[in-house]
Amino acid sequence: MNSIDQLIDTDYQRLSGTWVLSSGVVDGQPVPEEIRKKTRLITSRDKFTLSTGAQTGTSEDGRFTIDPTKSPKTVDSVQGSGPDKGKTLLGVYEIIDDNHKRACWAPAGKPRPTDFTSTPGSGHILQVWERETP
Question: CA-to-CA distance for 9 and 11, rounded, in angstroms?
Fold first, then answer.
């Protein structure tokens, strides 16, 4: 395994698990508290399921590909269900520490975000995740 494959493998391991949405912003608007509280992301290597799906801006399931060599790190997510089924959302991600990560997504068909912001009119989906503790 070369060093890039090792980087990718390490990030997939660190991204895997069950995550709670600690904050979310869609097109400049905060995700409502009652939705935020019940949003769980379960990631297993390159597959994901999301408990609230479209309510927080993405589909309920799909696959994603990461590139940890870019700055910021990039992620491409193929939507497995919902209105954007089969489409790819382009995003950026950051592993803050073992229990926190964040991502910013552009709507399907739009260019990849370059930072972690969601302003009104951008369409960007900003998500901050905290690992769920058993």
Answer: 6
Region 20-27: what's the mean pLDDT?
96
CATH number, domain of 119, equals: 2.40.128
* pLDDT exceeds 80 at position 88: yes
Into how many domains does the chain fold?
1
Beta-strand ranges (E) seen in the chain are 17-26, 29-30, 40-44, 47-50, 61-67, 73-79, 88-97, 100-105, 125-131
- Domain hosting 21: range is 3-131
Q: Is the pTM of this model over 0.90?
A: yes
Angle in degrees, CA 10, 102, 64, rounded to 5? 55
Mean predicted confidence (pLDDT) in 5-18: 97
* pLDDT of res. 91: 98
